[in-house]
Amino acid sequence: MYKLLSHNDLDGVGCGILAKLAFGKQVNVRYNSVGGIDREVSWFLEKKETDTFLFVTDLSVNEENEKKLDEFYQNGGKVKLIDHHKTALHINQYDWGHIEVEDEAGKLQSATSLYYEYLVRNEMLVAKPAIDEFVELVRLYDTWEWEKSGNLAAQRLNALFFLISIDEFEEKMLERLKENEHFYFDDFEKRILDMEDDKIDRYIRRKRRELIQNKIGKYYVGIVFAESYHSELGNELGKDCWHLDYIAIVNMGSRRMGFRTIHDDVDVSQIASEYGGGGHAKASGCTITDTAYKHFVEEVFHLDPIREDARRNRYNLKGNSVGVLFLDPHDSRYMVFEDEGKWKFEKDHDKTDNSFLTFQEAEKYLKRNHAVWLSKDDEYVNYLIEIIKSRR
């Protein structure tokens, strides 16, 4: 017999689907939250099921269970823990652990891709194109490589996962992977996914208007309270507010929060670890501890959301060397302009000593330190008129 304990997200359930393809009715699959895995592992070890092969995928265990699992293994028990999170790399010290963040070619791994390789290599599952394609979609989504490659099918697979129950998703995928040579979405799924895309876009636009900016430690952070679409939300907010180091998404209902970044020089897994969590360099999470609550809720709840840049301008456009007008919450106006190869800015017509090599550096400085936003064309024109009048 086999037992699989896995995460309850797409990557974790992907492992469960592979286990059922490989072992059928001989495997017992249970999906867990990050906080629930240690309890499940403890229960398994207490039962002393030495004839059962235990797989743990897409999740790691605490130090106590590490020692217990190693003892179980040394006494002849069968166990394999497969994960791809950076914070679990220390598990590789055990013969039963396999943690791999990326392969030798630099391709990021997911738990599903690692588990698939393990099952095929050990002749527990026969590879076929449909399974290859499904596993790659899971990997692309979980590592966010789908956005770089433009593979929207990966994002749609995750959307489908959340639109239906885990049992129904499993049933659909198992049937599809068993009976077809290639992976596909059926016509009904395509229609509901089109509707879901529109819903996600509306949700992100609404949450963008609620985004709060604050400096926490050495980082400038965007904080938003949200219950749904955390990955999509964090990614889009990160791109729209690129001057922020990372986005913190707080879910008060589940008492959990996620961290997302688009920047290569920011590792949010380290940030999450400060609050007892973990994950990937660009996507991680934690429970809302007292310290996390203080930093991301209590200290910012009274702050106003940051304003959005004007989006329909014809004249006040970013990078315009003649001048770009920004406004701040205190009704001050900042004109950014190019002068002798440097970018400078004046505040309410008064010049400052600040200078930057690029427009982006000037914009980043103003957004971080003064919470500015790009003004509309009419405000820009009025400012230019004031300059002309002052020179007469």
Please give a structural write-up:
The strands form three sheets. A six-stranded mixed β-sheet has the order 6-7-8-9-11-10. It has a five-stranded parallel β-sheet with strand order 2-1-3-4-5, sandwiched between helices. A five-stranded antiparallel β-sheet has the order 15-14-13-12-16, with helices on both faces. The protein contains 14 helices and 16 strands. Strand 10 and strand 11 form a beta hairpin. With 392 residues, the protein is of the alpha/beta class. The protein has three domains: 2-185, Rossmann fold (3-Layer(aba) Sandwich), CATH 3.40.50; 210-298, Diaminopimelate Epimerase, Chain A, domain 1; 324-390, no CATH class. The longest helix has 22 residues, at 187-208.
In brief:
The chain is an alpha/beta fold and 392 residues long.
Which architecture of the largest domain per CATH? 3-Layer(aba) Sandwich
Work out the radius of gyration.
25 Å
Mean pLDDT: 94
- Rough shape? elongated
Q: Could you spell the SSE succession in H and E letters? A: EHEHEHEEHHHHHHEEHEEHEEHEEEEHEH
Give a short account of the largest sheet: 6 strands, mixed
Beta-strand segment tally: 16
How far the N terminus sits from the C terminus, by CA atoms, comes to: 89 Å
Name a few traits of the molecule.
single chain, 392 residues, alpha/beta, Rossmann fold, 3 domains, 6-stranded mixed β-sheet, 5-stranded parallel β-sheet, 14 helices, 16 strands, elongated
Per-chain topology:
Blueprint: E1 2-7, H1 10-23, E2 27-32, H2 37-47, E3 53-57, H3 63-74, E4 78-83, E5 97-99, H4 111-121, H5 129-143, H6 145-149, H7 152-163, H8 166-179, H9 187-208, E6 212-216, E7 219-225, H10 230-240, E8 246-251, E9 256-260, H11 268-273, E10 278-279, E11 283-287, H12 290-298, E12 324-327, E13 333-339, E14 342-347, E15 350-356, H13 359-370, E16 373-374, H14 377-390
Parallel strand pairs: 1-2, 1-3, 3-4, 4-5, 7-8
Antiparallel strand pairs: 6-7, 8-9, 9-11, 10-11, 12-13, 12-16, 13-14, 14-15
